Amino acid sequence: MATTATQPKAVKDVKVFTFVWEGKDRSGKIVKGEMRASGENIVNATLRRQGIVNPKVKKVSGRGGKKIKQQDIAFFTRQLATMMKAGVPLLQSFDIVAKGHSNPSVTKLLLDIKTEVETGSSLGQAFRKHPLYFDNLYCNLVAAGEQAGILDALLDRLATYQEKMMAIKGKIKKALFYPVSILIVAFVVTAVIMIFVVPQFKELFKSFGATLPTPTLVVMQISEIFVSYWWLIFGSIFGAGYFLANALRRSEKLQFLRDRLMLKLPVVGDMVRKATVARWTRTLSTMFAAGVPLVEALDSVAGAAGNRVYYNATKRIQSEVSTGSSLTVAMQNANVFPNMVLQMTAIGEESGALDGMLSKVADFFEREVDDAVDALASLMEPMIMVVLGTVIGGLVVALYLPIFKLGAVVG
């Protein structure tokens, strides 16, 4: 009679910690080190097997690290690619990069991944356990590199991709940050004038005993509203911003409306469209060159587009391609891509060099984004000066008109 052996349940998600240790080796020399393990007993047992005598083990607190940014991940990817190309073993590369990083949070993350690889996980699987830092595109490319035996080349391509994406995002933020920050400062300055300065002039004008000009009366009326309801005005602005930010995070419909509006804005919309197309084509080129199947690659491209309009369009393209349509026809049906992109994609499909053509398209649109950012900066500076001059200058003139009138009467 056959018997069924009871298999022990696999222990999942064993929590590991960082320990620092100090002890003496067999020759009596003092040695120090760092180790990742689930407990202090395991560290002591491991050190005894290595011949370390009377080790002192201390658990390192996980607190104190800075937030892990996209720049940290891109820098780590570039370092890992460089070391693997130089022939440094994978685990040793992780050790070198982790211990050389200035951010303890990054060190902990990399040592966690190294521990997972040491316990039998593939590198792609280890990255997938940290979705906050490694998205599907990243994990898919690493998995493709492992399967094809070209992990160093794929990591190099991935690092280049991340650097280009960060450059595009940085340019867009730079173009939008300046005008937005100036407008916020202008609003705060205007509010301060309305709440603290205008009431002083109001008291002064009461002693004139004359009819005030209409602009002065309007400014005083606005000032009274600010003085009486400043808490409601500022509370409404911050409350609306907080509510809108939360609503945008939760509602795909609102994200779609926001992104569609961004694409229709004058000047800014054209720049955002070019940046999105550059990101879209760069992502698909990178995935396709790595040997990822087109339908699967489009799934990652949709998430990397950074725009809900292009996300929805990419999902439609993916559906059409999966049913047998060519990529060019599906992109044409989506009606969100410039004619040049469609023509280059068609040439790439016909010649069998789709990744190369898409890479050239991405290069072209990245240069276009550079030019658009420079043009926007040149255009916004005089416009902002006009707006600020009108607002601040109008307030000053309105406040001094009664004084000018009084001077004319006295003269």
* Major sheet summary line: 3 strands, antiparallel
Extended strand count:
3
Q: Encode the helix/strand succession as letters.
A: EEHEHHHHHHHHHHHHHH
Q: What structural class should be given to the helix and strand makeup?
A: mainly alpha
Radius of gyration: 31 Å
> What's the helical proportion of residues?
over 70%
Unreliable parts = 1-13
Tell me the β content.
5-15%
- The side-by-side strand order for the widest beta sheet comes to 2-1-3
Helical segment count: 15
In short:
The chain is mainly alpha-helical and 411 residues long.
What are the SSEs and their pairings?
Layout: E1 17-24, E2 30-37, H1 40-49, E3 53-59, H2 70-85, H3 90-99, H4 104-118, H5 123-128, H6 136-148, H7 151-206, H8 214-250, H9 252-264, H10 268-289, H11 294-304, H12 308-322, H13 327-334, H14 339-351, H15 354-410
Antiparallel strand pairs: 1-2, 1-3
How is this structure best described in words?
There is one protein chain. The chain has helices at residues 40-49, 70-85, 90-99, 104-118, 123-128, 136-148, 151-206, 214-250, 252-264, 268-289, 294-304, 308-322, 327-334, 339-351, 354-410; strands at residues 17-24, 30-37, 53-59. A three-stranded antiparallel β-sheet has the order 2-1-3. By secondary structure, the protein is mainly alpha-helical. β1 (17-24) and β2 form a beta hairpin. The chain is flat. Mean pLDDT is 83; it is low at 1-13.
